[in-house]
C-alpha cells in the first residue's frame, strides 16, 4: 500500500520547478513562487541551494505548521522564501518527513481540493513549542555575502528578460539579444581579468 502522501509527492517531485537554476553553486537554484525580485526572505536553491539536514526539515515543518495548516508544496516554497532562496528542500525530503511526523502522531492531513492539507495535532503543537526558537532557515542566511545575493538577483532578472525575448521577440530581436548576451559574457570575463582593488 502506498503512503497517503505518495500521489502528491509524485506530482511535485518532477513538476516544472524540478530542474533549473545556475548549476551547483550555493543559493543559485531557481527562485520559487512568490519571490519579489529575488530579495532575501522564495528562492529555490532546490538544485544548487544549500542542503539542509534532516532535523532542519523536521523543525522547519513543525514551525510552519505551527503558524497555519499548509499544503506540502507551500511548505517547500515558504522555506525557500524565508531563506532567501538559499535553502529549498526537495519534495523527496519534505514529503517523507511529513509521513514520519504523521506516523508519530504529530501531523494530520485532510483532502483539500484534491491536495493534502497538513496541520499539527495537539502533540505536534507541543513538539513545535519545544523547538529552540531559532528557525532553521536562519542558519542558511546568517553568513551569506550581500554581494552574492545582489548578483543572484541580477542574474534572475536577466533570465526573465531572456525568456520574454525568446517568447515574444522577433527573429531580429532575438539575434540582437544574442549579441547583447555574448557581449555581456565577454565583459564579465574581462572583469575577472582586471586587477583587484580590494586590499
Automatic annotation (TrEMBL):
User: Is DNA-binding given among the entry's keywords?
Assistant: yes
What segment(s) does the record annotate as region Disordered? 1-55
Taxonomically, the superkingdom here is Bacteria
Q: Where is the composition biased (Gly residues)?
A: 17-26
Q: Which UniProt keywords apply?
A: DNA-binding
InterPro entries documented for this protein: Tscrpt_reg_PadR_N, WH-like_DNA-bd_sf, WH_DNA-bd_sf
Signal peptide location: none
Write one Gene Ontology MF term: DNA binding
The name this protein carries in UniProt is DNA-binding transcriptional regulator, PadR family
Protein species of origin? Prauserella marina
